[in-house]
Fold this sequence. Notes:
The protein is α/β, with parallel strands linked by helices and about 170 residues long. It is built from six helices and five strands, in the order E-H-E-H-E-H-E-H-H-E-H. It has a single domain, classed as Rossmann fold. It has a five-stranded parallel β-sheet, with helices on both faces.
Amino acid sequence: MTHRSIYLAGPDVFRPDAADHGRKLLALCAEYGFKGVFPLEPSLPAGLSPRELAAHIYGANVAHIEACDAVAANLDFFRGPEPDSGTCFEVGYAVARGKPVVGYVPDDGTFAQRIRRRHPHAVGEGLVDASGWQLEEFGLPLNLMLGVPCRVIVGDLRAALELLRAERES
């Protein structure tokens, strides 16, 4: 399977240095022979209401996913012990469209282990969260709706690109 263009999903667009960080991610993609697509637009249309702007961004990101051959997704915890919800949607959309998705997380372990280690305040005793709700534990690093359809690796974008390049070359 040939992957030439890769949509870079993740909460990286919310970083204070998002534009600079995005340029670094795109350069890394080029280093591996891919055209990266970072969803942060350099300029947005003026005069739109917040709802219209949100619809514009949504449409642009869906179009980017449609145009790309694969998705590399930063699925690290974001604003709590779960990945970014927008990234989760993008992953689901890509999977539904038959696009390969490689997700990456910075640490090893199952979903419950990772939550317990990085967000101990969010868990109770056993396999329940602080509110008594069951913690998912299937031996996957993320919720099964991400961990089953995606290849989830420990590492960063570089590790995801290495996997995609190896797949492309095989």
